[in-house]
Design goal:
CATH superfamily of the largest domain in chain A: Chloramphenicol acetyltransferase-like domain
Helix content of chain B: 25-40%
Helix content of chain A: 25-40%
Radius of gyration of chain B: 24 Å
Low-confidence stretches of chain B: none
Distance between the termini of chain B: 72 Å
Number of strands of chain A: 19
Number of helices of chain A: 8
Largest sheet of chain A: 7 strands, mixed
CATH class of the largest domain in chain B: Alpha Beta
Order of helices and strands of chain A: EEEEEEEEHHHHEHHEEEEEEHEEEEH
Largest interface: A-B, 34 and 39 residues
CATH topology of the largest domain in chain A: Chloramphenicol Acetyltransferase
CATH class of the largest domain in chain A: Alpha Beta
Oligomer: heterodimer
Strand content of chain A: 15-25%
CATH architecture of the largest domain in chain A: 2-Layer Sandwich
CATH superfamily of the largest domain in chain B: FAD/NAD(P)-binding domain
Low-confidence stretches of chain A: 1-6, 91-140
CATH architecture of the largest domain in chain B: 3-Layer(bba) Sandwich
Mean pLDDT of chain A: 81
Strand order of the largest sheet of chain B: 1-2-3-4-5
Shape of chain A: elongated
Number of strands of chain B: 21
Structural class of chain A: alpha+beta
């Protein structure tokens, strides 16, 4: 058997690939190409701008060198790990030589060890009852890849690392289908989701004029995520109402003060703070489900997303560590975050790591709604428009400003009674903040 | 002297690696120039190697079959050998094949220059041509396919007319009465078979403890059962220390493993101790191409050398020194230059020794498995249980397969017997396809053929071969 030779030379070109930009982000669209062919670039210099999941990101070059080939154009859809550029590096020689030298030394050491301690090793192996002797696994040693020459060629053409593909054939043989499936994984899921949503569309033009528009990247991702959520999570929505008459007085009282700090004291900001208390009180609402291991993951930090309506569509930036921030700080941060989201100036890591979400549609209207959970979260708070109502209390009807609230939760992890308790607790705290002291 | 425009691809050497690279590159649309000292492509393989030896071995086989036919009741009288005619026929075979290759050069519109190339600076070579003197050629890409030449040993003067290397020995000039072959590798054994067929007494001396150093012992043992009959003397673990003329003969001094000296007289001596790469006269010092300690050009899996635009393939780029390996590498280099994502990732390169009986191997050997601590299960089907082999009076062979006990994939194989070389390709394909022993066992093989022995060997792994009784699978 002939292992692949792995000598590298100084003129070997380096590939720039789309890195893992953000959680759940598999693709994006090239917004701008920031360098040109033949240009000399430095390490960390931005080479392209990618419109990913819900924001625009610059991709930095990991190498210094000259741009040899640009494989993408503006508007192209790119996937994580896709090669976008070839850089011809200059100082490669030394590095590569070091690498091979180091490898050589390692190999020598292994040999020495084997010679001196061969018997010891053998004895140990017997004790440990290892079925097979240790196969010396070198990096990039493709000699043991169970795939035919044409499949190996196909994998090279599709830029697929065969060591990562699991073979479906006898003796784990990798077939051409295995390689194609591996290559199309993210796309296939997307397609399947679409197929489920719209099986066999009729020709609408038979009833009247139609026009077509390409889905934006955000639309594609949102559609995929919500349908996955809807299909996988058994949703239950609990509805309630809170008397916010006092809260509204408090809000108006401190409004101007907060504005001076550059913030905006909104119902959302106050609900964010109360939600953080609620999540501490009801840890399951701050958890995630690990179905593969049949475990519940409790998170001991309180990051909460806020749904923002933008021109491009729904985007959910995350406010970090809400529990450790004051209402004043939150009012400033939420205002600023929402503004940057609308301006498309949000970075991908600001969209990650949320445990719970607040979606406030009260500004638009509605008596109540059942929001869809954003996986891997397990609950989401919906806020509709507050209205004055005649409420019968203490023997008479009183005029009270009532806020309709709803919480959708994952019924696999949260029981109905807990869902009701959670939302009631939030309402109680809104109506009587002193109750938080219990 | 003229400096042509930059050539897209220049290939130095038109052996099986060089011409295969040239054809592939031309078919992929590249503008190709090939430089070789011969008038037509072919290289050592066609002019002084594979092809002429096989022509002569074919005659040897006919004569051997005629002799052994006596055992089966058909008696021929001793053959009447017309050596002139043999030589002419052999030359005709070579001419036909190389001429055919030349035609393929023309039909692909490849520029063929008869001459000797040398690097003068990166991006430029000079070519010494017969007709038009020295010519300078610039290139964008170049493939070095310069091959290898016979190696000599200290104490043996190859310029002595009675001392031959493998190319000289194929000329069949001044046929001796007796011959000493130095080197028990495949060239030595094949030439022994040829010379023996022409009724020449052949002796052989080998430095190591057996023929075909590195090969599994069971294959050599099976070969020797018949094969060693052709030798007058076999000197193992011995070496030649001196050769001097003694009348019309050569006096050869030997030294055995105990440093005991002895001598014998032979009409001629054939030196076949190995090959060395033709990397020394290429002017590589004018480039940054790196060589290894044995003089082979260092290449990566794309056949690229350490200088951009320079590729190397075949014998000059390292062992095994086999024409089919050169041809494969030639295709890879041409594809890489044409922009394809090709790499040399062959899992198994077969090797065939065209002796009587033939020996063929591919993939993992037992020796290699033991050295590398690779677990394997060996299955061996003796040809004495093959109907076809017995009917062909070829019952001394066997078919051996090495199998991974865990995933049942075929790791390597060795076959000894008639036509072993033609049979091995099935197992090379099995290894490349990552076939399991079951795949081979479940493939219907024609009856009665020698190829059935491959299927039956695979069946032994599962404990149910048709024509021998095997113990249950372990």
């Amino acid at each position: 058997m002939i292992p692949l030779k792995t000598i590298n030379f100084n003129h070997m070109k380096k590939e720039i690939k789309i890195p893992d930009i953000a959680e759940n982000v598999e693709s994006g669209i090239i917004g701008k190409v920031l360098v040109s062919k033949g240009e000399k670039i430095k390490v960390d210099q931005s080479v392209v701008e990618v419109e990913t999941d819900k924001a625009t990101t610059d991709i930095p070059s990991p190498y210094e060198g000259i741009v040899d080939e640009i494989k993408v154009d503006e508007g192209d859809e790119v996937k994580v790990n896709q090669v976008i550029m070839i850089i011809e590096t200059e100082e490669e020689e030394d590095e590569e030589q070091k690498e091979t030298e180091e490898k050589g030394n390692e190999e020598e050491e292994i040999k020495k060890k084997e010679e001196s301690g061969a018997r010891e090793i053998e004895a140990k192996e017997k004790e440990e009852k290892k079925p097979a002797p240790p196969k010396q696994e070198k990096e990039k040693d493709m000699s043991d890849i169970p795939a035919s020459p044409s499949v190996r060629r196909l994998a090279r053409e599709l830029d697929i690392d065969l060591t990562k593909v699991t073979g479906s054939g006898p003796g784990d043989r990798i077939t051409a289908e295995d390689v194609k499936n591996y290559a199309q994984k993210p796309e296939r899921e997307e397609k399947e989701a679409e197929v489920i949503k719209t099986p066999e569309l009729p020709d609408f033009s038979q009833w009247g004029p139609t026009s077509r528009e390409k889905m934006t990247n955000i639309r594609k991702i949102t559609s995929r995520n919500v349908s996955q959520s809807w299909q996988n999570i058994p949703h239950v929505t609990q509805f309630d109402e809170a008397d916010i008459t006092n809260l509204e007085n408090f809000r108006k009282q401190h409004k101007e003060k907060i504005e001076k700090w550059g913030g905006k004291l909104t119902v959302t900001a106050i609900l964010l703070k109360i939600s953080a208390f609620a999540l501490q009180k009801f840890p399951r609402f701050n958890a995630s489900l690990d179905m593969n291991n049949q475990e519940i993951i409790y998170k001991h930090y309180y990051n909460i997303g806020i749904a923002v309506d933008t021109q491009q569509g729904l985007i959910v930036p995350v406010v970090q560590n809400v529990n450790s921030k004051s209402l004043k700080e939150l009012a400033v941060e939420v205002h600023e975050l929402a503004q940057r989201t609308r301006d498309k100036k949000i970075s991908p890591d600001e969209l990650q790591g949320g445990n719970f979400t607040v979606s406030n549609l009260g500004g638009i209207g509605g008596t109540s709604f059942a929001p869809v959970i954003l996986p891997p979260q397990v609950a989401i708070l919906g806020v509709a428009r507050s209205v004055y109502k005649q409420v019968y209390s203490d023997g008479e009807f009183r005029k009270k400003l009532m806020l309709p609230l709803s919480v959708s939760y994952d019924h696999r992890i949260i029981d109905g009674a807990d869902g009701a308790r959670f939302l009631r607790w939030i309402c109680d705290v809104i109506e009587d903040p002193y109750s938080i002291l219990f | 002297m003229s400096d042509n425009n930059k050539n897209e691809l220049v290939i130095i050497g038109a052996g099986p690696g060089g011409y295969r690279a040239a054809y592939m590159a031309a078919d992929l649309g590249l503008n190709v120039t090939v430089i070789d000292p011969e008038i037509n492509p072919g290289g050592v393989c066609l002019y002084r190697g594979c092809i002429p030896t096989k022509a002569l071995l074919h005659l040897a086989k006919i004569m051997k079959d005629a002799t052994t036919a006596g055992e089966m009741g058909i008696n021929f009288s001793d053959p009447d050998i017309d050596i002139e005619k043999v030589r002419a026929w052999k030359s005709d075979v070579v001419k036909k094949l190389t001429g055919g290759l030349g035609q393929l050069i023309k039909s692909r519109k490849i520029n063929y220059i008869q001459g000797i190339a040398r690097f003068i600076e990166p991006g430029k070579i000079s070519v010494e041509t017969k007709e038009s003197g020295e010519k300078k050629i610039s290139y964008k890409n170049i493939i070095i396919a310069a091959g290898a030449k016979p190696l000599s040993v200290p104490g043996i003067d190859l310029s002595n007319p009675l001392v031959m290397n493998s190319s000289d020995s194929l000329e069949l000039n001044d046929m001796p009465d007796n011959l000493l072959i130095v080197g028990g590798g495949y060239i030595g054994l094949e030439m022994a078979t040829i010379y023996n067929a022409f009724n020449i007494e052949v002796s052989i001396v080998e430095l190591t403890d057996d023929f075909m150093p590195g090969m599994d012992k069971d294959l050599i043992a099976a070969y020797k059962k018949e094969g060693e009959k052709i030798f007058k003397d076999i000197f193992l673990k011995s070496k030649v220390t001196k050769i001097e003329n003694s009348g019309k003969q050569l006096k050869v001094e030997f030294e055995d493993k105990n440093k005991k000296k002895f001598s014998n007289k032979y009409d001629k001596v054939l030196v076949a101790v190995g090959q060395k790469p033709n990397s020394d006269n290429l002017g590589l010092e004018n480039t940054s191409v790196e060589l290894d300690e044995k003089g082979f050009i260092k290449v990566n899996e794309k056949q690229q050398t350490s200088e951009k635009g320079i590729y190397a393939i075949g014998d000059v780029a390292g062992p095994p020194l086999l024409a089919h390996k050169a041809g494969y590498e030639g295709k890879i280099a041409a594809e890489v230059i044409a922009g394809k994502k090709s790499v040399n990732d062959a899992k198994a390169i077969p090797a065939v020794i065209y002796t009587e009986p033939e020996i063929a191997t591919c993939g993992l050997s037992e020796k290699e498995a033991k050295e590398k601590n690779i677990e394997y299960k060996k299955v061996k089907f003796p040809w004495s249980a093959s109907g076809r082999a017995v009917a062909m009076n070829a019952k001394n062979g066997f078919t051996k397969i090495l199998i991974d006990p865990e995933n049942e994939r075929i790791l390597g194989a060795g076959i000894v017997g008639k036509n072993a070389g033609d049979m091995i390709a099935e197992l090379v394909l099995a290894i490349e396809m990552a076939a399991t022993a079951d795949d081979v066992a479940l493939t219907v093989h024609p009856h009665p053929t020698l190829s059935e022995t491959i299927m039956e060997a695979a069946e032994i792994f599962y404990g149910h071969p048709g024509h021998i009784h095997a113990r249950k699978k372990i």
